[in-house]
Recover the amino acids of this structure.
DNA sequence: CAATTCTTGATAGGCGTACATCAAAAATTG
DNA sequence: CAATTTTTGATGTACGCCTATCAAGAATTG
């Protein structure tokens, strides 16, 4: 039983290959009746177009654009590297991946960038600030036929077809559960530091964290959030101050960046064994501190996975190929010293 | 700058496309001098054969075989389902995936199966028992030009080109770290249950677990391993007995299957809040018990990921395509109630 | 040096689809 | 019913590589 080709479909439907092709590629100029006849033949024969041949024949490139935030946030830098790696890897397969940097905190700027790149690309992956004008820009792109995927940070109500990132509320809950379990019956205060409350993901993490802490571990009291602005020096100051103000501090959760600052502060104060510290993102500093024991657990999202997933989704939408649901689900990784990758 | 094709290489090397093709596909009948000339041209032009076109042109199918253990171990059943799913998914891309079941505990039987399937397949993925005759069979396959990948359970010294699975020693260490951190300053005994000591992975987990427990948590004493044979009813008995014999039992680690038995035993004895329980593999029972709180953490390997990875590796070896290292690294997942997928 | 073997070139057909073109047939309109 | 528009068929070229064949050239052998 050889492969079923477009020719078999044509014969079975009693039309020419040209017509089948017209139906397949949604070109107009085909009567509804004929379209239906062809489609039924496709279903009956279970015809599956050969994507390899299709991509070979359509010698056009697929063009995707990744829109990332400017700045030197460690995680975002990593993300950028992964995008570059993906670009290189996909090049021989006729997939061109560009990258643009924009100020994510400025909704209008981001929206403007998105508007600009409209017609050049088949798909866009964007680290999205949840802002009305950004939402609007995404709608615009979608209407112009550009597939949009959100990356790392989502805009739930928007027209994006997919979100390649983790559930940050769940991530916050995970942090809280770990904190509670690690602290056991110990009593005291738990400090919470976020990057900026302007970012959706940090707020969600904070929400999830507080939710679990208050419900399940009421013997621990959560201190008001402190903003560290993802800057490690500032985070260090905040941490030091926190320890001074609260001698009974037993736990720390950093929902944002600048983990390095907390590590430094804890070690300077020689409280690293004493205070349970949980943070996000497996950076070099975090990794080493995890091994030393200063950090007790890292909650991570795999940037490489996120980028590869976004690319796969964009590509699948572009030539309407299949998607493997499970493969595109980004996990909330928990890393201890012992299961580091 | 259009794509560099085989024609460009031919011209640059001053030979015909036929010769370039001979070199590329390692066909014989080409002088060393010429081979080198062509290869240098390839390098200079940075020629990358178009894998899409290649796979289209070679109308032969790629044939792979997955060799899994017989029996109704939950994890292995899941693995089998993933193989079936992969087979279906890859079919339209000219990849045929077969599956065979064998008694894994019998080295000779497994080796015999491997010997049999020699010439039909381009690649084999096998859940490998570490046994001399299996090792020998893998060597044989490799020599006959069949790519071999081990799956879930490895044979380190063998000729397999890749292992798609987790580091089980590290998994055991991870379990121990969690156990130690969850128990905090509590004192008492920790029970350890394995499926069978005939399986390499369980031994490794046990080793890793004991290693960390004795070194880092000396205030906890580990009880001698009990064999549960991956059978939940037997595991339940063992657990019940363990609790009776050791009234001061504070933790349980199940390195093998039959987690359901422990769940039942703990809940019957109303010790589920009291005893910290860590197990492997996110089965349905484990999942629900994790949510109820009977299970404190699950250490998991993603069967789907392992199968997909094995297929990617086999395919890459078959048409010497590139591999993404990071993508093929199977993670040791830690699941709490809050980061369930 | 002739006979043989080993290398290479030239060329053609095929893989399954995309895309374009032109003419023929069918449906729609006034 | 003629004129127009829409739909369809037939066909060819392209994508980049694989595979096979045959003849010619080069190197090796005795």
């Amino acid at each position: 039983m050889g492969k079923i080709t477009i020719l078999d479909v044509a014969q079975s439907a009693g039309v020419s290959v040209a017509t089948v092709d017209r139906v397949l590629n949604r070109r107009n100029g085909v009567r509804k009746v004929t379209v239906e006849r062809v489609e039924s033949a496709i279903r009956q024969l279970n015809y599956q177009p050969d994507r390899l041949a299709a991509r070979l024949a359509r010698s056009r490139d697929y063009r995707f654009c990744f829109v990332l935030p400017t700045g030197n946030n460690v995680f975002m830098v990593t993300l950028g590297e992964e995008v570059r790696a993906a670009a290189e890897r996909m090049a021989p397969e006729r997939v061109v991946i560009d990258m643009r940097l924009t100020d994510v905190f400025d909704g209008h700027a981001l929206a403007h960038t998105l508007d600009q790149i409209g017609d050049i690309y088949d798909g866009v992956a964007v680290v999205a600030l949840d802002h009305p004008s950004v939402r609007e820009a995404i709608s615009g792109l979608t209407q112009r036929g550009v597939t949009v995927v959100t990356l790392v940070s989502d805009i739930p109500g928007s027209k994006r077809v997919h979100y390649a990132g983790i559930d940050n509320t769940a991530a916050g809950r995970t942090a809280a559960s770990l904190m509670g379990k690690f602290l056991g019956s110990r009593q005291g205060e738990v400090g919470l530091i976020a990057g900026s409350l302007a970012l959706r993901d940090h707020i969600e993490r904070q929400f999830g964290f507080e939710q679990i802490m208050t419900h399940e571990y009421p013997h621990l009291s959560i201190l008001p959030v402190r903003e560290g602005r993802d800057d490690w020096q500032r985070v260090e100051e905040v941490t030091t101050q926190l320890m001074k103000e609260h001698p009974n501090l037993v736990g720390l959760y950093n929902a944002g960046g600048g983990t390095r600052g907390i590590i430094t502060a804890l070690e300077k104060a020689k409280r690293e064994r004493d205070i349970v510290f949980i943070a996000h993102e497996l950076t070099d500093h975090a990794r080493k501190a995890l091994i030393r024991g200063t950090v007790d657990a890292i909650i991570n999202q795999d940037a490489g996975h996120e980028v590869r997933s976004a690319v796969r989704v964009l590509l699948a939408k572009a030539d309407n190929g299949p998607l493997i649901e499970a493969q595109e689900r980004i996990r909330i990784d928990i890393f201890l010293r012992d299961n580091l990758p």
